[in-house]
Amino acid sequence: MSDKFLWGGASASYQCEGAWNLDDKAESMWDHYLHEEGLENGDIASDHYHRFEEDIRMMKEGGQNAYRFSLSWPRIIKNKAGEINEKGIAFYHRLLDACHTYGIEPFVTLYHWDLPQYWEDCGGWQNEEVCEAFETYARVCFDNFHEKVNHWVTFNEPKWFIASGYLIGNYPPCRQDPQAMIHAAYHVMYASALGVRAFRQGKYPGTIGIVHSFTPVNGVDDTVNTRIAMRYADNYCNNWILDTAAKGEIPVDLLSELSKTYDLSMIKPAQLQIIKDYTVDFLGLNYYSRTLVKPYTEGETTFIVNNSGKQGKGSSKVIVKGWFEQVMHDPASTYTEWDTEIYPKGLKDGLLEVKKKYNLPVYITENGIGMYEDVTVKQVEDDYRISFMKDHLQAMHEAMEAGADVRGYFAWSSFDLYSWKNGCEKRYGLVAVDFENGLQRKPKKSYYWFKNMIEQQKRQGGKTMKKIMLVCNAGMSTGMLAKRIQEASEGTMEVHAYGEAEFINYMDGVDLILVGPQIRHQIPTIEAQVAVPVKAIAPQHYGMMDGKGVYKEIKKILKD
To answer: 20 to 30 A from 468, CA-CA: which of 188, 202, 399, 504?
Structure first.
């Protein structure tokens, strides 16, 4: 793993900035929709607009070296005529300057779902004119910020904002029209290519990519019908974005199937050539889970998404008529309260699949878990988030060892955000934001774990390192043994010694506890307090301070 590997957190303009009508910002489609419907909104959100320096400083203090965030189109461009809002430009200069002041690499997304309402009023992404407007907006951003940004992204998660806006109907513009969805999906991918073209023609420094909500597809069995369903699902979930952006080719079997039912006349040869000529430099993959499918049996096309957490448990349902059905509740798997399967193996499998198909650099641009949390406590003890991230990072490392070219990892999210239709209840942040009490920031337990993990990775050149704890009467006499074990491991283990009265305060990231012979009777008591293996150090190894001997025993324990 390179010293340039990016470790950071991510956010999105509408979800964190607030200041929805300050400093000449135009109305976004989300502003309009949520106000019209009287729903919880992002008018204030995390107030990142006023508190970005505090947030970025906390990133630095948390060991991070990168920050992925999005620019707000309606904050930068005032109207259809393309008038630039200099106050918006100035804000993002201040944000970027803060990043550089604290040694944080900006990773900047042009579009994270907040289309200006003046363009939505003209048909939104069904209107080809919006594609050209996006290219103009992209050039404005490149012209103004190219000296401060080396990593650019055209779009964040086209699948979700298109499917949710035009098929599921739970996001603006709240349509349930497959024809409209197909039309809008094509225009977004064309607009992305126009953004890449603007970047290349301007000869700006750095690289440009696209971010996709990546869900590797698995089948319930290995039958022919299931494999056919998997191909349909992969085209819907992944290929229309990744193939188009990375290879410049819309999957031909997808086009063939769609042409049987839908009007594809909006696809023009000249536009297809632009898509072919202007592919991305890298792929950003937002990974939360896989997609498990079975062959279609019956029923109309149905998309039901759980936006209410445990109150809507079991409500999620996905059927694409004639194509596939998604298995939403595999009894062998664990799920979050929002019906998301926790499946770290999918990240390893997916990264290797992407390597084989596209052979491009990859960034894990989002990975995290949303939960209900009480942020009024002194510190949120989010061990579930630590476990989730630890397992997925292990999967990432295994993929990298097998050849995947991964160059960064961004936790979603840097701090608690407004989570679209889930409001502020669904929390992802490494830092807690108390939305009810002055937006106070408080690092969660995961924040400190992430910091320690990053420091370990830097010390070990990215190698996966096990953390071993020795526990004895006072800890002092065992310090020498800890040092010798660490030396014997040749950098594969981090080993520390603590007294039995204090060890519980240092459990972050510990993989194994070894107990000194003098207190081996305390093993049952220690086991009751921790969720990791607890073993006794052999008296002969302890007496001779035999680090090599203990190291061999540790390897055997961890292997078993």
So the answer is: 399
